[in-house]
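REQUEST ID: PR-0412
SUBMITTED BY: lab tech R.K.
PRIORITY: routine
TASK: structure prediction, single protein chain
INPUT:
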Amino acid sequence: MFHQLPSLNAIKAFESAARLSSFKDAANELNVTPTAISHQIRTLEDSLKVRLFERKTRAVTLTKEGELLAASANQSLQDLLSTVNQLKGSPQTFTISTTNSFAAMWLVPKLAHFQQRYPDIDIQIRAEESIIDMEHDRRVDMAIRYGEPPKQLETKTLIHQPLIQESIGFFATPDYWKKHNENLSEAVFFCTQWKNPNLPNLGIEETIKSIVANTQPHIRYFNDENLTAQAALSGQGIAIISQLAVANSIKNGWLMQGTDKMARSITGLHYYLVMPKRLKTNQAAIHFKEWLLLQ
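STATUS: complete
OUTPUT:
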């Protein structure tokens, strides 16, 4: 029945090279030489009588036929690995990509609850600011992104699911508020400048200027919300930051929201889920998505 199928080693070599867009990286992943990967793929192409990769000087890219086989190979190997892990009692690894701040200040503190509920799913987090190509990068199973989800929530290959719309407020230590609440002209404000240039302007600087009347406010910027929060936690100033990012600090009494005119909130952007359609029936993806929506 399956005698016409290529060898499993050839499929593994091809899938790895397709996912990583590199014969060298595939060789490192599979503990073989790049020559061995190249030979396996060449043999596979000869047996199928199609070209799977366009070979360039410093990179390889999939042909249309290669993209078709890559999707099928990845799904088949994922299913096989899931079954093998189930038989061995090993946890299924599921990799999430998200921003550093969301990982550190929201996802990681809550993750123990998910792991207790689903001990057979091993969640791996890739905290990074770069945007992963979810259609082609199979090192990541799911991404939680910051911004505005696309109007078309479902495309040919991806599913987008809005999770949380943030509310941005003014937060500082209790001592800092005591010293500066009456004289905000001497206060220091910390804002986050996101690396993604496509995010819309929320008018935070204008809001600060409208509050601190008749003087130029002292505003300092970080490119990571973690640093914005840490600056406020160390008593250096007032962080204009998502309530999601400081929820734990508020709960412990380390930070508090301002009062009077500093109690205002700014409607922020969304955190939303991006998942390849090929994982639509994956049990780990289903469980993690359902868990996120309940938080």
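NOTES: The chain is about 40% helix and 25% strand.
REVIEWED BY: pending
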